[in-house]
Write the structure tokens for this entry.
Amino acid sequence: MLDMKLLENVRFVVDSHGKKAAVQLDLKVWNALLSYLEESEDRTLIKENLSRVVSGPEKSRAIPWDDAKKDW
Amino acid sequence: MYRLWLEPEVHAIRNQLPGKVRQRIKKLINGLMLQPRPAASRILDTEGLALPAIVEIRRVRLENWRIIYAVNDNEKWVWVLAIRQRPPYDYEDLGGAVFHNVNLGQAKFDDVNLSGASIRNANLENFSIEDAYIEGMTIFGLRVDLLISDEMDRRDPERVRLRMSDPYDPDCVRRVLRRLDEVRRSFRETLLAAEPGLLTVRPAPDQWSAVEIVRHLLYAEDLFLNRRILGNVEPWNRLGLLPDFLIGDPAYAGVGSEPTDDLDKILEAWEALHARMRHSVAEVTAEQLRSGLRDLAYGQGTVGGVLQGMAQHDLDHIRQAEAALSGKDKL
């Protein structure tokens, strides 16, 4: 879960009219955002493939590593 | 041993992986058969997804790549579900591109994936390849990787002496490591006899000096012994030197944080680590040599495999250092 307090310290870059044009993030915030997005993406991956994961690799026609390895 | 499976998407994505990353990911995936829960991996939160309790979803990172996989201990399988990259993406994908009637003269390829690529009707005069993984490479239908290996063995018989006929036979392993000790002793004498000013000279801007190579060997011994074989998580030795592709990886934070050109200090630290390695190997059994490693992020799958890799790695770098000191190209 992303700690929303981290986002309280973002900085805005303004254009010549004083209008917000971009956001600057601390590296810590950027990394936290990426981690949150990755967690979310990985969860979605599992959710979308849930029935396959439950059925197991053989029934889901996954590729045996022994067959694939030579092509790596 | 777990049966290992790949999602078709994972198999297809291999062509998009940078060359060095691809080989490391291959080793990592291969290692999951023996150790499906390497130290660098962690379980993913799947609460609320109605997954059977016997299926565990895990993730392991390799630099800015992550591998998501499922483990089933009851049915003994590991299933690699996805490989994802964390931005920024600095790898341009030209996989499958066709270069026809183009001039690539003087082009330089660095950290590229050319596996499965083919070249026909080309002028390769003065073409050179260095520091490359060439297993299965053919020229005019000939397995040049095998020819090159034979020729390198002929030029440097030490390569043959340091090759284990059976990395799971304790006597064979100890014999090779005793020989490696002799090679190291001779290398140490060469270093100590060298003109001090030469020790820190880089043969080329992108090549290490002799002292940098010794610092790298110190790091490697730390990696082989503490991380891979003993599974220790003690802090990295600060005198070591990482290969370029690991710089910035948080898993290696601390390596090289106290860079020094003090050869005596580096050799002393290396010897201290190696004494522990020697002690660890003195009583090693066949069963231990066959055992899986605790950290598979960058390693062969067994203790015997790591020790074989260490012998080859050390010799290769020792020859580089000797070449740097003599001003000649390696071999």
Notes: The beta strands of chain B are 3-6, 41-43, 55-62, 65-72, 77-85, 138-139, 142-143.
